[in-house]
Amino acid sequence: MLPDHSTPHLEAIDSNAIFGGVVRWFHSGGIFAALSNTTPELIVEAMQAAKRFGAVVSFDLNFREKLWNLPGEQERAREVLGRILKHVDVIVCNEEDRQKGLGIAGPETAATSKLEPYVFLGMIDRVLEQYPQIRIIATTLREVHSSNRHGWGAAVAWINGQTCRSPQCYLDVYDRIGGGDGFASGFFYGILAGESPEQAIKLGWAHGALLTTFPGDTTMATLEQVRSFAQGGSARVQR
């Protein structure tokens, strides 16, 4: 973890101007939490402010081992991430995130391994035992064959006791960076738009897949393209 910097706490910011009557969803993640000793506190304060104004609070565990590689930082990571999760409604994570970031035991995983949806769903109770306020847990199950060929497995979600999953496909990947964020943003959009759980998870899955076919980690997909792919269309660019 990097040393402290002059990251302002939320008391120095007008939270009414930021959250009041405007923000419906607040999202942060494990990478930002790892940047300094003050960023986790800023996350917690922002989450508390968002909740006061009725916003949904989500967090992507995004555990990056290299950001917690100093002596004692692995243990501190679990304490920091666990403290943040006490304020969260929606969590996006994979098995490695949960095992290394939260210390919740499970099957050994690797970047190239395939994890079946039932394994992910079978471990949700362990998360809920520690964080019973969480309403949604979601992930993508990706199998990496090479840098340019991925099995874009089923996206899986537990939503208020209901489980749902997307289709799966193989992708010719242009740039894999951002696929997970693309899934999260598409999934959140579906929930905010009032879609059914099944459609929301399909939109997240489709957007994440399409994002890997573009350069960089900023989407170039239109909503029409995402919806078309979610309904069984092609991942090829529509012109």
Q: Please, could you describe this protein's structure?
A:
The structure is a single chain. Strands 1, 2, 3, 4, 5, 6 and 7 form a seven-stranded mixed β-sheet that branches. Helix 8 (179-192) packs antiparallel against helix 9 and helix 9 crosses helix 10. This protein has helices at residues 15-19, 30-33, 39-52, 73-85, 95-102, 117-122, 124-130, 179-192, 197-211, 223-230, and strands at 25-29, 56-60, 90-92, 136-146, 149-159, 162-165, 169-172. It has 239 residues and is α/β, with parallel strands linked by helices. Helix content is 39%, strand content 18%.
Relevant terms:
239 residues; alpha/beta; UDP-N-acetylmuramoyl-L-alanine:D-glutamate ligase; seven-stranded mixed sheet; 18% strand
Layout of secondary structure:
Elements (H helix, E strand, L loop, with lengths): L14 H5 L5 E5 H4 L5 H14 L3 E5 L12 H13 L4 E3 L2 H8 L14 H6 L1 H7 L5 E11 L2 E11 L2 E4 L3 E4 L6 H14 L4 H15 L11 H8 L9
Parallel strand pairs: 1-2, 2-3, 3-4
Antiparallel strand pairs: 4-5, 5-6, 5-7
Helix pairs in contact: 8-9, 9-10
Rg computed from alpha carbons, rounded to a whole number of angstroms: 18 Å
Work out the number of β strands: 7
- Indicate the CATH topology of the largest domain: UDP-N-acetylmuramoyl-L-alanine:D-glutamate ligase
Helix proportion of residues, in percent?
A: 25-40%
How big a fraction of the residues is strand? 15-25%
Shape estimate:
globular
The largest sheet is: 7 strands, mixed
Number of helices: 10
Named at the architecture level, the CATH assignment of the largest domain is 3-Layer(aba) Sandwich
The SS-based structural class is alpha/beta
Order of helices and strands: HEHHEHEHHHEEEEHHH
- Could you name the ranges where pLDDT drops below 50 across 5 or more consecutive residues? 1-7
Classified in CATH, the superfamily of the largest domain is Ribokinase
Mean pLDDT: 82
Class of the largest domain, according to the CATH hierarchy? Alpha Beta
The total tally of domains equals 2
The CA-CA distance between the termini, in Å, is 45 Å
